[in-house]
Amino acid sequence: MNARLNLMASPVAVKAMKHLIAAGRTLAESSLPAATQQLVMLRASQINGCAGCIDMHTKDATAAGETAVRLNLVAAWREATVFTDAERAALELTEEGTRIADAAGGVPDEVWANAAKYYDEDQLAALVCTIAIINAFNRGNVITQQPAGDYQVGQFD
Fold first, then answer.
1. How far apart are CA 57 and CA 37, in angstroms?
2. Per-residue pLDDT tens over the stretch 61-90
3. How would you class 112 by CB atoms within 10 Å of its CB: exposed for 0-12, middle for 13-18, buried for 19 or more?
């Protein structure tokens, strides 16, 4: 598969991506658990069909010590017993926030309230921003058909 556009060769795209990457680094320093961040980015990427981000976040999570069982079950988290209640709340918010156009009223209050039971205000802010940023990356990659499989851990550090 060849990409429709080489985003890294476009001065405009590179400039915009640098800001998204910087925002992602800020979130990595937040108090939202790193494992939760990786699960959220993986789940949103699965929903959006972004192979490049699925490749990246699976490899990054594995390098950080995440288990294959948990990574393989992210797509079916509701039926899996390997996630904490807090992680389940984050994954539910991720799904609702990613599929926002499918819900007439946006993210339901019950979903937000469930997440708020497990995360403080700063963590909720980091969670919302993580969902928004990964969705931006997913959309750019899917629109331009970025190929996947060659990502190396730390490649974009």
1. 10
2. 999 999 999 999 999 999 999 999 999 999
3. middle
Predicted TM-score (pTM) of the model is 0.92
DSSP 8-state secondary structure symbol assigned to residue 110? H
Q: Round to whole Å and give the CA distance between 53 and 59.
A: 10
Phi, psi of 155 (to 5 degrees): -55, -35
Separation of first and last alpha carbons in the chain: 25
Residue burial 128-157, b: 16+ Cβ < 10 Å; e: rest = bbbbebbbebbebbbeeebeeeebeeeeee
Residue 1 has pLDDT above 80, yes or no: no
Distance separating alpha carbons of residues 2 and 108, to the nearest angstrom: 39
Task: Tell me the C-alpha distance between 152 and 150, whole Å.
Answer: 6
pLDDT above 90: residue 7 = no
Angle of helix 109-118 relative to helix 85-98, nearest 10 degrees? 140
